[in-house]
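Holo prediction — hydroxy diiron-OXO moiety.
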Amino acid sequence: MLTPEITKLLNDQVNAEYFASNVYLQMSAWCEINGLEGSAKFFRAHSLEEREHMDKIFDYMTECGQAVSIEEIPKPPAEYGTLMDVIKGAYEHELKVTAMIKNIADTAFSTKDYTTFNFIEWFIAEQHEEEVLFGKILDKAKVLGFDGQPGQQLHIMDNYLRFAEGNASK
Ligand code: OFO
């Protein structure tokens, strides 16, 4: 049985993961229209991953006998100046999600809801991975001297992002 406080936090997270999925889907659309196919592929895949996160929490809540409420999802940002703005936006978005996940862990632990604490641990590890992933992308941009402007570096960054999940784990 989940407490009302934990139920609300988990429900908010379901909706936040749905929003995150749309944020990345919109980033993918921006990349597509700006000739950045590798980046579009990366953000599209990431959008699906967020959707899986949503499903995971959805399933946990229903397993616990708790109804999920899908709320109105805000429109994600759609205007970006450059690919660098998109990448920075993604990194900042992940930091916000990490704070939400840690708040769930903190609340679960302090209310002795060890089942939810155990469940949310997976997300703590996942957020660490995602921060590392986007951190490495930012590092690569620094190494290249990439600032988002058109040119050879943009082409290299686009190719790097095409395989970024694999590149970042090396
Ligand atoms: Fe990006 O990990 Fe879920 O939100």
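READOUT: The chain has six helices and no strands.
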